[in-house]
Design goal:
Number of helices of chain B: 13
Structural class of chain B: mainly alpha
Shape of chain A: globular
Largest sheet of chain B: none
Structural class of chain A: alpha/beta
Keywords (chain A): Signal
Membrane topology (chain B): Multi-pass membrane protein
Organism (chain A): Phytohabitans flavus
CATH class of chain B: Mainly Alpha
CATH topology of the largest domain in chain A: D-Maltodextrin-Binding Protein, domain 2
Shape of chain B: globular
Distance between the termini of chain B: 53 Å
Helix content of chain A: 40-55%
Distance between the termini of chain A: 24 Å
Protein name (chain A): ABC transporter substrate-binding protein
Helix content of chain B: over 70%
Largest interface: A-B, 46 and 51 residues
Radius of gyration of chain A: 22 Å
Number of domains of chain A: 2
Largest sheet of chain A: 5 strands, mixed
Number of domains of chain B: 1
Number of helices of chain A: 17
Strand content of chain B: under 5%
Oligomer: heterodimer
Family (chain B): Belongs to the binding-protein-dependent transport system permease family.
């Protein structure tokens, strides 16, 4: 551990030195800022380079040294950089709540946020915005294969829990696996539990997480246990593939799009993976509640946070604001990651995007008037979980796939919460 | 001015000083810093921390995740060490020839040891996942009706990781036992043959005692390698399902950089260090005594 930590610090240092030498010096008397990014199949190196170039045009004199996180876990990498004294000036899509307590982030100007975004307080922490709320996601939606539904004699997607169970039973009876689950990746394994928790617990008490911080409620409370029992019902009825915990997230996508299962609970970023050639075969519905009310587990994400210690706060802010308001950057996020844009005064057409029908239907859940709750484990605002709790939530999701001890798993979460918040 | 010998001595002293400096900077200093951190509530995001005495060490006694990770790590260490050493002896006996093809096979046998743990993890992931190569082969030849969750259940994941680690370590153990076998005097084997001692009896009475020093090295290093294992598990299972394959080293990294508990992570690291030292000393001591007895 010790050597690993020290080595990590040395490597991070080496990386920074390399980045500095690669990026060149200041030009025109401007500053050189480090910018932590990450890469995915859709957010490629070229995307970042182009988006940086475009933002630099709006923030003259700002030079950028881009650092790429070794995995999509930006938070852990940012913490490693911080512990080795190399906290970046700009940090893309991190979880601000992990860093704000240590005074590491600088809030954005409220007037600018209010003027430019549909939900200015969507990811705010105690009223301050540390990441411009440029886009949002629904986590999860239930995506479904229309052809398989028809084959099982199902005419329309379910509207409440009873109908949902009926749909599962019909699919199973027709020899169709009801759900695909990428249980080999902990975050993907948690999707059904996030859906159930959001619909049944947060839908009835949207302040549940604030109450949990205030110790007024617990995971082991009867109403939570009852809700989570629903997940066990789905598992014990055999609605998931028995080996689902061995399926990686990427494989779960190909399983679902390849027609190996009828439903796929996943974040709306899956919209970027819907096959274009038969996109009309896929639909989406919100995780069903008992009474049929629509509850949308919602996450307002965003672009980049600014370090409170940056040597050029003005340059960093100009760059970050320019990047955040550039529709071209949102275009890549919309088409590739199924992000729902949240810039004020713009329609989908303004981003020059080509989207599928299922994207439009999903986006309607964002724009329509319905009950929106902060998706547990995904929210980056005041409802973000304490550090380390996400991992425990994911682990509970995996454990409940094989263990019927719902109460015991919820008690473990309460214990982990206590440790994380002490 | 200076004799050749004194110049050589000076050069050696310089090299020794350099090595000592690197050892102090990259091993002793971080160790001391971590020891200090283990008595604090250090958080990677906070500029200051407080001295909290033995609180971190007391907390370990009731930490269920730590207990589970230690049980997993020790089970894996014992199982993999036994399997890798048994395989190493077997491969070494098979490859203890001078023909070119055997030398090529020796290189192949050592190959897993030179691969990065991350690469090993990714390669085996493509083999062991639900849609992976192994399930495809077994179902296509009719040995399985449906894919088996090699990484999808706690027990199967433990066995799968054990197999992967055995494969990796067998390269190292093979080379160690080969070197040990080649140090066995030919005359001894010839005498044994003349005395009519052959096959397994010759292995038991002559070869096995003579390769005892190799066993000491191989077993000790195998144990230490598994006790500090991080990379392969991080890639292959990420510690799942449900933390069932979370090694202690992986738990330490998560405590430090996910839960922001660098002080507690340092305390657990100290425990792991102490455990590794005790195990290594105990095993080395026992095997050395065995060398003398044999």
């Amino acid at each position: 551990m010790l050597r690993k930590t020290f080595l990590a610090a040395c490597l991070a240092g080496l990386l920074a030195v390399t980045a500095c030498s690669d990026g060149g010096g200041d030009s025109g008397g401007g500053s050189t800022l480090t910018y932590l990014t990450f890469e995915t199949p859709h957010l490629t190196s070229t995307f970042w380079d182009n988006s940086i170039k475009a933002a630099q045009a709006e923030a003259p004199g700002v030079q950028i040294n881009r650092i790429t996180a070794p995995s999509t876990d930006r938070d852990a990498y940012a913490k490693q950089l911080q512990s080795s004294g190399q906290f970046p000036d700009l940090l893309q899509s991190i979880t601000p709540s992990n860093f704000v307590g240590a005074g590491l982030l600088k809030p954005y100007d409220k007037a600018w946020v209010d003027a430019n975004f549909l939900l200015p307080q969507g990811n705010a922490l105690k009223g301050e915005v540390y990441i411009p709320p440029t886009n949002s996601q629904v986590v999860p939606e239930v995506f479904y294969n229309k052809e398989l539904f028809t084959k099982a004699g199902i005419g329309a997607p379910p509207k409440n829990w009873a109908e949902f169970l009926d749909v599962c039973a019909k699919l199973k009876a027709a020899g169709i696996t009801p759900f695909t689950l990428g249980g080999g990746d902990p975050f993907a394994a948690s999707m059904p539990l996030v859906g159930i928790f959001s619909a049944d617990v947060l839908g009835k008490n949207p302040n549940w997480l604030k109450d949990r911080y205030a110790d007024k409620v617990k995971f082991s409370d009867a109403n939570v246990v009852t809700a989570v029992e629903k997940y066990r019902t789905l598992v014990s009825n055999g609605y998931f593939d028995k080996g689902a915990l061995g399926v990686k997230y990427a494989d779960s996508i190909t399983q679902f799009t390849g027609g190996k299962a009828a439903m796929y609970p996943m974040g709306s970023w899956f919209l970027g993976s819907v096959p274009k050639e038969n996109a009309d075969n896929f639909g989406a519905f919100p995780w069903p509640t008992d009474d049929g009310s629509v509850v949308i587990p919602f996450v307002v994400g965003g672009s980049m946070a600014i370090s409170a210690k940056t040597k050029d706060p003005d340059g960093a802010t100009k760059f970050a604001q320019a990047w955040s308001l550039n529709p071209a950057n949102l275009k890549a996020l919309i088409e590739g990651d199924g992000a729902f844009p949240m810039l004020k005064g713009k329609t989908l057409a303004d981003y020059n995007v080509t989207v599928t029908k299922v994207f439009e239907d999903s986006y309607a859940y964002v724009t329509e008037d319905n009950t929106k709750v902060n998706a547990i484990g995904w929210a980056t605002n005041d409802d973000a979980l304490p550090p380390g709790l996400n991992d425990q939530f994911y682990a509970a999701s995996q454990a409940l796939f094989t263990s019927a001890d719902v109460k015991g798993e919820m008690e473990k979460l309460d214990q982990a919460w206590k440790t994380a918040t002490n | 001015m200076f004799s050749r010998k004194s110049r050589a001595d000076g050069g050696l002293a310089l090299l020794a000083a350099l090595a000592l400096g690197l050892y102090l900077i990259f091993l002793v200093l971080p160790l001391l810093l971590s020891l200090r951190s283990s008595f604090t509530n250090e958080n990677p995001l906070r500029a200051t921390n407080e001295f909290i005495g033995l609180r971190n060490y007391r907390e370990m006694a009731s930490d269920v995740q730590l207990r589970d990770s230690l049980v997993f790590t020790l089970t894996l260490a014992v199982g993999v060490t036994l399997a890798a050493n048994a395989l190493g002896v077997a491969f070494a006996i098979l490859l203890n020839r001078t023909h070119l093809s055997y030398r090529v096979m020796r290189t192949l046998a050592f190959l897993p040891q030179v691969l990065s743990g991350v690469i090993v993890g990714f390669v085996w992931q493509t083999i062991l996942t639900q849609d992976g190569l192994l399930n495809n082969v077994l179902t296509s030849v009719g040995l399985l009706d449906e894919p088996y969750p090699w990484l999808g259940s706690p027990r199967a994941a433990l066995v799968s990781i054990g197999v992967v680690l055995t494969w990796v370590l067998s390269g190292f153990t093979t080379v160690v036992y080969l070197a040990a076998l080649q140090s066995v005097p030919i005359e001894l084997n010839d005498m044994a043959t003349m005395d009519g001692v052959r096959g397994t009896q010759r292995f038991r009475k002559v070869t096995w005692p003579m390769i005892a020093p190799g066993t000491t090295i191989s077993v000790t290093i195998s144990l230490i390698t598994v006790l500090k294992l991080y990379d392969i598990i991080a890639v292959l299972t990420g510690g799942g399902p449900a933390n069932s394959t979370q090694s202690t080293a992986l738990y330490i990294v998560r405590l430090a950089f996910t839960s922001d508990r660098l002080g507690y992570a340092s305390a657990v690291a100290m425990l792991l260090l102490a455990l590794s030292a005790v195990v290594a000393l105990a095993v080395t001591g026992a095997l050395r005594r065995r060398e003398v007895t044999l």
